[in-house]
Q: What sequence folds into this?
């Protein structure tokens, strides 16, 4: 009997080289888009280490090697970002940069949409500004 072998999203985007390009494109947008200035200011001026961490996290999140967890433990994203005020504007700026990076690197429109939708849920979860969390 032959089973169906499903590719992970990590494999579908093109493995670590593609993840690295996504992260580089993401931070290039964060550095250049005026709409991202507020979230860029939350990062160190030298993004070298930040990029390395996101490349490991995103690779693992997509189903690749568990480099992030083996080195840093459970992601605990919300806790790690708690010192920073993250509201709707910050979420939207982050998604603007990530959406553009996915557009640049991931050729499949259906995979881009899937990843963007999933990352949108993560970005929503990261909001910690009480005003952003109030019901409409």
A:
């Amino acid at each position: 009997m032959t089973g169906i072998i499903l590719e992970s999203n990590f494999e579908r985007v093109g493995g670590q080289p593609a993840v690295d390009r996504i992260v580089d494109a993401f931070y290039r947008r964060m550095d250049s888009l005026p709409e991202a200035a507020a979230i860029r200011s939350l990062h160190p001026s030298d993004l070298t280490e930040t990029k390395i961490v996101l490349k490991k996290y995103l690779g693992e999140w997509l189903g690749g090697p568990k480099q992030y967890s083996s080195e840093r433990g459970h992601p605990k994203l919300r806790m790690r970002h708690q010192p920073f005020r993250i509201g709707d504007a910050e979420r939207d700026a982050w998604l603007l940069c990530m959406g553009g990076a996915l557009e640049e690197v991931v050729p499949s429109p259906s995979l881009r949409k899937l990843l963007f939708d999933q990352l949108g849920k993560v970005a929503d979860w990261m909001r910690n500004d009480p005003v952003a969390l109030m019901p409409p």
Notes: The domain at 14-127 is CATH 1.10.490.10 (Globin-like). The chain has a mean pLDDT of 91. The chain is about 70% helix and 0% strand.
